[in-house]
Automatic annotation (TrEMBL):
Pfam families: Hist_deacetyl (PF00850). It comes from Oncorhynchus mykiss (Rainbow trout). The keyword Acyltransferase does not apply. It catalyses: N(6)-acetyl-L-lysyl-[protein] + H2O = L-lysyl-[protein] + acetate; N(6)-acetyl-L-lysyl-[histone] + H2O = L-lysyl-[histone] + acetate; N(6)-(2E)-butenoyl-L-lysyl-[protein] + H2O = (2E)-2-butenoate + L-lysyl-[protein]. This is Histone deacetylase 8.
Length: 397
């Protein structure tokens, strides 16, 4: 699938090029031009209350605290502007979500009613359990991503980080895959207030379906998602041939991958696609979702990545020197997720981090090695072993 993917993506991108290359303008941001490479202005959205609210998410309990505590323990906060997030208003969330969905979420949030007969219509239940205060959680996450995006608009930072955001599956009228609010969509819409073309890059294990759906009809937002694509694997979308619709045709790029992919191959695929995307779409701002369920050791047990490979991909995007909003996402091995996002924060700040996990509140979660590194497992790379089949398949395309 890997070779076929690249071949077809380049074919699609050529069509894209023919369609709108003439519309390109060269965008330059004066405040970057004299920057020393060692002084990237980074905003980090955080408050104790926000972290506590995010900790309550039943699928990733205490993850927000673990991530923040490790970032703090490595002394990274002193290199960033720490900005307190605000809470999103219902009007702000309604820029994407329907009033009916938000009103229902608000209603059931009062007492955590899991038995409301209407909830099923809004995707609430099995995968997205209803708990008391779920509306407040959604407003907090949405507000934090809007805060981060606003910091980019105000040039308070060139990079803004909300590791507790990145809930890319939520639809306008439906919760999905643990996502109650699509803060990534809200962040993109906020950046669109100033920037003509916004690029969304999603390296979570799962297809970024909610974000792709939100912008599938527009040429102003290009979405790129690299993900596992396999029969029965959630959410089941993100095939190569899904490229957007109407005016948005060719502005959605999907890179389906198989199990076992490791850093080197992933980086090769990523850069091959992103070089073309950047040259052809010429984005003015970027939102990148960095879900950590691709890590070796994640219970999803699919990809075989380490933070080093993801950091290389992130570095490729940051080298464009565009206003960039970084979001979290999946990541169900909580310690590995904290390792990954801490390592990425260090990479953004160009800080080298010691291998030994520093002593802090969650230190015991990092045993038995108490090391920042994640070692890939010895599982086979299915993208590699299928190459002969792929070569044959290419001849038939
Ligand atoms: Zn995921």
């Amino acid at each position: 699938m890997y070779l076929v993917s690249i071949s077809i993506i380049f074919g699609l991108i050529k069509l894209l090029k023919n369609g709108f290359l003439h519309k390109f303008r060269v965008a330059r941001f004066p405040f970057y031009s004299n920057d020393s490479p060692s002084k990237r202005k980074v905003v980090y959205v955080y408050s104790p209350q926000y972290t506590e609210t995010c900790d309550s998410l039943s699928k990733v309990p205490n993850r927000a605290s673990m991530v923040h505590s490790l970032i703090e323990a490595y002394g990274l906060l002193q290199h960033m502007s720490v900005v307190k997030p605000r809470v999103a208003t219902s009007e702000e969330m309604a820029k994407f979500h329907t009033d009916a969905y938000l009103e229902h979420l608000h209603k059931i949030s009062q007492d955590g009613d899991n038995d409301d007969p209407q909830s099923g219509d809004f995707g609430l239940g099995y995968d997205c359990p209803v708990v008391e205060g779920i509306y407040d959680y959604a407003a907090a996450v949405g507000g934090a991503t809007l805060t981060a995006a606003q910091c980019l608009l105000d040039k308070r930072g060139e990079v803004a980080i909300n590791w507790a955001g990145g809930w890319h599956h939520a639809k306008k009228d439906e919760a999905s895959g643990f996502c109650y609010v699509n803060d990534a969509v809200l962040g993109i819409l906020k950046l669109r207030e100033k920037y003509e073309r916004v690029l969304y890059v999603d390296v979570d294990l799962h297809h970024g379906d909610g974000v792709e759906d939100a912008f599938s009809f527009t040429s102003k937002v290009m979405t790129v998602s690299l993900h596992k694509f396999s029969p029965g694997f959630f959410p089941g979308t993100g095939d190569l041939c899904d490229t957007g619709m109407g005016k948005g045709r060719w502005y959605a790029v999907n890179v389906p991958l198989d199990d076992g992919i490791k850093d080197d191959r992933y980086f090769h695929v990523f850069t091959s696609v992103m070089q073309e995307v950047q040259a052809l779409f010429n984005p003015e701002a970027v939102v990148m979702q960095l879900g950590a369920d691709t890590m070796a050791g994640d219970p999803m047990c699919s990809f075989n990545m380490t933070p080093v490979g993801v950091a290389q991909c992130l570095g490729h995007v940051l080298d464009w020197h565009l206003p960039t909003l970084l979001l979290g996402g999946g990541g169900y091995n909580l310690a590995n997720t904290a390792r990954c996002w801490t390592y990425l924060t260090g990479a953004v700040l160009r800080q080298t981090l010691a291998s030994e996990i520093p002593d802090h509140e969650f230190f015991t979660e990092y045993g038995p090695d108490y090391s920042l590194e994640i070692s890939p497992s010895c599982r086979p790379d299915r993208n590699e072993t299928k190459q002969l089949d792929k070569n044959n398949a290419i001849r038939h395309v």
